[in-house]
Specification:
The protein is an all-alpha fold. It has a domain at 111-157. The chain is 75% helix and 0% strand. The chain is built from 12 helices and no strands. The model has no long low-confidence stretch (mean pLDDT 95).
């Protein structure tokens, strides 16, 4: 694996320990190969792990992850990390695609009714309580609410390449890996469950990304998941 070579070049003893952890985690999770690779790539972006992301993206592409799928995960990161932190991963993916001769098809952006289309997806994911969200809120929050519907959902979630279930998986991992986003993470736990990613599945996702984001953030995500189950 590319990631094993990268770690082993730096420290063979650490590489042995890390490979043991990956094997332990792999033996306890039943995620599909596609979901596991999406979760890992999203988690690496969320925690800022550019070197590991580059290595893991190469591994993922060599193991069947479609370039279009990987690209959508990277684009989703722009909404949940902000371009300031997402840009290194946009550049990394572009460089890796170029080195492998991958040419993604050009596309036209649909600028029509972005807020309406975005809000429809919010309703689909989070329920009828989101109806009218883009126009709701006080003077401080309404502009942000509009952008959430218009940009976050109306520009990103509407895109092809990932199903809603996969997008919510990616978002869950981006938020869990960042840390400090527990309120938003709780909301997207509910969103994940509404599109088919149940509690047991999300528990396996946390286990899957633990080697990449560490124990503290994994435990925080697990606490959020347990609290959501109680409520």
């Amino acid at each position: 694996m590319q990631i094993d070579d990268v770690v082993r070049e730096a420290d063979c003893a650490l590489a042995d320990i890390f490979q043991g952890l990956l094997q332990d985690v792999g033996a306890r999770t039943k995620l599909s190969s596609n979901d596991r690779m999406l979760a890992e790539l999203a988690a690496l972006m969320g925690c800022g792990g550019e070197t590991a992301f580059r290595a893991r993206l190469i591994d993922a592409l060599e193991n069947g992850l479609l370039p279009e799928t990987a690209r959508e995960a990277v684009m989703q990161a722009a909404a949940y990390l902000g371009m300031g932190r997402a840009l290194p991963f946009v550049q990394a993916a572009s460089e890796i695609f170029l080195s492998r001769g991958v040419q993604l098809a050009p596309e036209e952006r649909n600028l029509r009714e972005r807020a309406t289309r975005g809000e429809e997806l919010q309703v689909q994911i989070f329920g009828e309580g989101m109806r009218g969200f883009h126009a709701s809120g006080d003077a401080l929050s309404q502009p942000v609410n509009l952008l959430l519907s218009k940009n976050c959902f109306g520009d990103y979630y509407v895109r092809e390449g990932l199903s809603l279930r996969e997008r919510e998986l990616v978002t869950f991992c981006l938020l869990a890996a960042q840390g400090g986003c527990e309120t938003q993470l709780a909301g997207h736990i509910a969103g994940n469950q509404n599109v088919g990613n149940d509690t047991a599945y999300l528990g396996e996702v946390i286990l899957c990304i633990l080697p990449w984001i560490g124990y503290p953030r994994s435990l925080n995500a697990l606490t959020c998941l347990k609290n959501a189950k109680k409520s």
